Amino acid sequence: MNPRLLARTFGSEWAKLWSVRSTWWCLAAATVLTVLSALTLAGATAADITNGRRPAVPFEVSESVVSATIFVQFALTALAMLAVTSEYSSGLIRGTLQATPVRGRVLAAKALVLVPVMFVAGVLAGALAAVVNYAALSIDVFGGYATLTLGETLADLASSGVFYALIALLTIGLGAAMRSAAGTLTAVFMLVMGLPLTLAMSGSAAALEISMRMPMFAGLAFMRSTDNLTGGLIPYSALEGLAWLVGWAAAALVAGYVVLRRRDA
């Protein structure tokens, strides 16, 4: 793949991403949802401690930022989805493919644009949420058990940013394959949350094992989250969770590339 031509396509995709209001709305929604979700989760932890329902030990406020990714991911998923499907609904995809006939380059450029945007958006929103949580919950009325440790916070923020970036890649692939906003959103929701939760609650040991390897639980394992339906850490390493996430994203991108290459715009 010619690096100069890829750079030109990257510039075009970058301009398209920031020229529409939906990008800013999705990022704003993700930031607000991160702060509110994390504050709710951390507040529940603080309340349980003060009411004696949990041991009176300090807790990291960044843990709630990681837990909030379950909800926040869909605000950023919408942004990744619109970066692909809006071109089909508006007909702009015809001009895009005429300007860049090598269709794999188009998909690669979209991925290269969205990955850093998703990572930075996740990290910045998470940092804001962590600071707000600490300011609100470290006061004496909540027992002063909330802590904000630099190393732990940076690790949690970085892992959540990587999670959002990989979910964005998965969404790009499914968007290119389905070409419909409604279809893409449904497919992403079912793959990331709907199907894993259904399998986890089925009562079948085999179904539970399958659900643990799907994107949501793989992401929670990678981020070392204890706030999930298993009641503890996911039963495999963070590195394996990352491997499963990368695998799902890669499979979706391959599917999107195959459809993009074989079907006319």
Summarize it.
The protein has helices spanning 3-18, 21-50, 62-90, 92-99, 103-137, 150-178, 181-200, 205-212, 215-222, 238-262; strands at residues 59-60, 146-147. It has 265 residues and is mainly alpha-helical.
Q: Can you describe what's shown?
A:
With 265 residues, this protein is an all-alpha fold. The chain has one domain. Helices cover 78% and strands 2% of the residues. The chain is built from 10 helices and 2 strands, in the order ααβαααβααααα. A two-stranded parallel ribbon has the order 1-2. Helix 3 (62-90) packs antiparallel against helix 5 (103-137) and helix 5 (103-137) runs antiparallel to helix 6 (150-178). The radius of gyration is 20 Å and the shape is globular. 43% of the residues are buried.
Which properties best describe this structure?
globular; 2 strands; mainly alpha
